[in-house]
Specification:
Blueprint lengths: L4 E5 L14 H12 L3 E5 L20 E4 L4 E4 L4 E4 L4 H14 L3 E4 L4 E5 L1 H11 L7 E2 L13 E6 L1 H11 L5 E4 L9 E6 L5 H12 L6 E5 L5 H6 L2 E5 L4 H6 L2 E3 L6 H11 L12 H8 L6
Parallel strand pairs: 1-2, 1-12, 2-3, 7-8, 12-13, 13-14
Antiparallel strand pairs: 3-4, 4-5, 6-7, 6-9, 9-11, 10-11
Helix pairs in contact: 1-8
């Protein structure tokens, strides 16, 4: 078997955004891969608390997870095997900035998402998403970081405010990733990790821990925060519903998420099935609108 692990993005790759769990064909293919000795790696912008609900993957049990856009890698039980947490200075600067302007801010810790600024805004947003495993707790006391440091942050603000942040604190080199289109409040949503962090770093960390090389890994994704992983893996594939930058970074394009593209790729690479190709169907701008709501996960 040429490849040892499959690292897959979550929303719009493993399962269509807005659906409760992966489709049966994908679940069956992932389990078949694992039964044959391959390792399945979930790669996501979420932290471990956002993916530990066993029901949300439709019966799939990942072997490892690259979380927080590469800043933390965990095993199936949530044990950290590689991490790049935020520093105290990086965290305090984010809190000061968001408090000054009342912008929502949460930090992604090992046990939960803690909202340090504007809890009600964030909590209400998660309730509206109705996505398993996603919610935050009120961290108004701002003391959770006294136990350990978060691996990532999530903030909501107008895009021009991000420019203002970089003008003041650009020397920190924090990596801001926009996760959706501007909403009715004028806010965009951003995942924030240390400079240089992406899913490709997480994949490299995992391969090193497993005694493998990146050439042993297949990566599949659909959007901008998958680009580092797609460039790093020995073989990479972008979904037909993927964004232009993700397609450009991938070695090839496979079927749309609603065509069970991941399942077809597994059958091809691990079980000598037919080449996984997109059908050529045009799902149009409607899919792009859905993707903009949560394609970075």
């Amino acid at each position: 078997m040429q490849y040892k692990i499959l690292a897959s993005d979550y929303d719009n790759t493993l399962m269509p955004f807005g659906e409760a769990k992966p489709r049966p064909a994908v679940v069956k293919a992932v389990k078949k891969l694992q039964a044959a000795g391959g390792k399945f790696v979930l790669s996501t912008g979420r932290s471990y608390p956002g993916i530990r609900d066993k029901n949300q993957l439709g019966g799939i049990r990942y072997d490892y997870a690259i979380t927080c856009n590469g800043a933390c890698v965990v095993d199936r039980q949530g044990n950290v095997i590689a991490e790049h947490p935020l520093t105290s200075e990086e965290m305090y600067v984010l809190v000061d900035f968001c408090e000054d302007y009342n912008y929502p801010l949460q930090f992604n810790f090992r046990d939960a998402y803690y909202a340090y600024c504007e809890y009600e805004y964030l909590h209400t947003g998660y309730q509206m998403m109705n996505s398993p495993g996603l919610d935050c707790v009120d961290g108004e006391d701002q003391d959770r970081h006294l136990v350990d440091m978060p691996h990532a942050a999530f903030a909501a603000m107008p895009p021009q405010e991000v420019e203002r942040f970089h003008e003041k604190y650009g020397y920190l080199g924090l990596h801001w990733m926009q996760t959706g289109a501007q909403n009715a409040d004028g806010y965009c949503y951003y995942d924030i990790v240390r400079g240089g962090m992406d899913k490709g770093v997480g994949l490299a960390d995992l391969c090193a821990q497993m005694g493998l090389t990146l050439a042993d890994a297949v990566a599949v994704g659909d959007s901008a925060n998958d680009v580092g992983m797609l460039k790093a893996a020995g073989l990479s594939a972008c979904m037909a519903n993927g964004t232009p930058d993700a397609k450009a970074a991938a070695d090839r394009i496979i079927g749309d998420v609603r065509e069970d593209g991941v399942a077809a790729l597994i059958e091809e690479l691990w079980f000598d099935g037919p080449r996984a190709e997109p059908s050529g169907k045009d799902f149009g701008s409607a899919w792009g609108n859905i993707e903009s709501a949560g394609g970075s996960l």
